[in-house]
Structure formats: structure tokens, C-alpha cells
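Why do we bother with holo predictions? Because pocket geometry can differ from the apo form. Keep that in mind while you read this record for zinc ion.
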Amino acid sequence: MDEAALERPDSGLASENLDTSQSEQLCAAAAAMSPRLRAVVTALCLQQQAHRNGRKLTDGELDVLQAALEDLADDDAEEDLGRVHGSDELIRAAVTHLVPRRPETASSVADIATSITLDTLEWLEAELPRLGHTVTLKAIRQLGSSNALTWLAESALDMTVTFHLLTTLDEEPVMLAPAQAWHLDEAAAFIGVLGLRTVGALRISAAAVRQQPDLTRSLLRLTIKACGYDSTLISAQLRSLSQENPERTNWSLLYHPSTRAPAPGHAAVLIDDDLLLRALRQGNTWLVTLALALAATAQVPSHLGTRLVTELPTLGPRTRLRTAQFLACRWPDLSLPDDVLVRAGAARARAAALADSLRHRDAHLLLSDPDLLVREQTVRGLTDIPTPELPVLKEALTVPAQQWTCLNCGTVVPAEVKECECGHTRPRVEISE
Ligand SMILES: [Zn+2]
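The structure, written out:
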């Protein structure tokens, strides 16, 4: 057990010592971002207030916490790879206050377990028995195909697999200055770019390393270059951390990027057509993200667009959507095949372009699409909606949908059915106020 993880105070979202008016301001700010984030922040503010006043949460406050937990449990960890949006704080609040009084909510805790960090997964293993919630721990362990301890060990192994590859990306020996070896600023900033914070993201990256080591190395080297770093320095810093404790390297230290180092750049680095296609065909979410991020900033030849269009039908559902989004963003006039996943990706790019030019209301047709996935992707693209535009957009959503398409298995499901055969939940389409 990592002692530092236990001793480190909860940090971040809504867990600082806020007074009531600061809590209210935070809730208002979160509400402006998304209904989901508002639910999480409200729940955390309530639990923080109760904690400060030394009282238990009321039934009404537990309802808010439970709603936020269930809301997050519906989230698709692979779609939002590596994004940590209050899940750690929420799961800690839920385990402390909610699960003991409402044991049936333990299943929702297990459902968001891929969106938490390894630190919190370790915390669950240590904290539940300490709080005397052995029944809860047992309930969480019994959920899913493997028990939490096995999963914890697997996640630590996943982390080692990915970080070890990074230590060997460039084996040219470099003498690190003492400050470079101690602070590891560049390595920490680069790890931040890779989006490897959550247990789910670590699982996907380790799968990439195991199944496609050469492809992964090539994409990582290019990503380091695009960030403006030298791969010999990054690998040397990671090796130096590893040599401090080869048996149990504390890779989590790299999750706290320093404010000393300047933010990584976004230099245009040429990505080879074949490398991009290999990543897309392979379909690992992490590799696809890295490859498309490189292609988005690079000077890519226009024949690549035509080549990707012919490739679209052969790609997996999630990759097809992401590739269509890339194509529609890069070449808005390119004609794309008629396919729901392609339509959803293009809708996301189109919505983002409309938002950029303050033409949100022109997205109303996309929001009335017969398929809920297209509507959901449109909402994701439509950022910073001005309040006067909300009624038109909400009106568009009232048109009954016919179906939704699963991003995971590609199955088309009737609109009234909540889950597809692979167990994925129906897209949630909400426009925030
Ligand atoms: Zn499915």
C-alpha cells in the first residue's frame, strides 16, 4: 500500500475548505459547464459542508450524492479516455457517506471504477476495511468478472508495462543535471499529455504496448517531438525514477506536473500515412487518439482525406466516428459515406465549428437527428451556448428519436431500449443551461 496515497489530503474539485458562498459560486460555475459536472460538484459541496459542521448527510443530501454517482456510472470511460472529472472525490464521498447507509449503491461505485485513479483504487482497498465496511468491500469485490484485489494488481501491472516502454523509447545515455533528475518536469508534463491518469486509460495503453509495441513506440516518439521535447531526455528521466526503486517504482509521482516547466507545445510533426492507417485499423482508443492528434496539427496531403474515406467502412465503430470527426474538421467539404457513426463524428466537428463562429442555433437539425448518438455528439461539440439560443436547441431535442447506435459494438437499438446487447447504456442527450 502506498503510504503517500493515504496521507495525501484530498485535493481538487470542491474538497478545499470553502465557505458556503464559495461553495455556491463553485456550483454555479460548474452548472454553466454541464449538468453532469454540476451534479458532481453539488454532491461534493454538500458532503463538505456536512463534514465541516460535523453532522451526517441528510436524506436529501444523500439523494444528491446518489444521483451524481449514478450519473457518472453511465459515462463511457473509453469515449473520455483518461479524463478525470471529479470521479475520485465523488467515489471517496460515496464510500464514506452513501454506501454504508444505502448498500445498493455499491454497484454504482463499481461502475465508475474505471474512471478513477490507481491512488483511489488503492484507497478503496485500505479505507473500506478501516471504516468497518467489510460488507461493502465484499459487495464491490463480487461485482464484475474479477475481484478488486486482482484488478488492483492488474492495474499496477498495466502502469508498469506502459511506463517501462517509455523508459526504453530512447536508450541513448544522457547525463541528467541534478535538478532534471530530481524534478522530472519534462517527463511529468509529457505524461500529462498522454492522458494516462485513470485505471481505464492505463488498461487501454497497456493493451496497446502488449499488442502493438512497435506502433506504440513510433507514435510516442512523434508525440514527444510534437511536444517539443527530446526523447533521450524523457526516457532518461523515467529511467532515473525507475532506478530509485526498481522493484516498486512510484510512477504516480509523474501525475503531478510541476508549474516550473512550461506547458508542452503543439508543433506540427509529419505523421506518415501508413502509420496513421495502422493506428486506425488497429483501433486501440489510446493509439487512435495519439495518431489523430498528430494528424490534426500536421501538414497532411489532401489525398490522405480521400484515402481515409475509402478506409472508413473497414474501421471499428468508435474509430470510424473519430476518423469521420477528423475528416469533417480538416476537409469540411469532403463527401462522406452515409453511415450513422460517420454522421455522428461529422456532426461533432460541425457543431464545434458552429460554436466557434457563434452560430449555435444552426445545430438544431443535427439535434433532431433520428439517432441519439448523432444528437449526443452534437451536444459534445456545442460548447459555450449563449442563453438566448437554448430554447431553440432544446426544442430540437423534443423531436422523438427512432434509435441509437452503440459506440462500442455498432448495434442499432430502438430509442426506447436503455441498453444494447453488449451492456452499453443509451447516449444521454442534455443541453446545459
Ligand atoms: Zn453495444
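Residues 3-144 form one domain.
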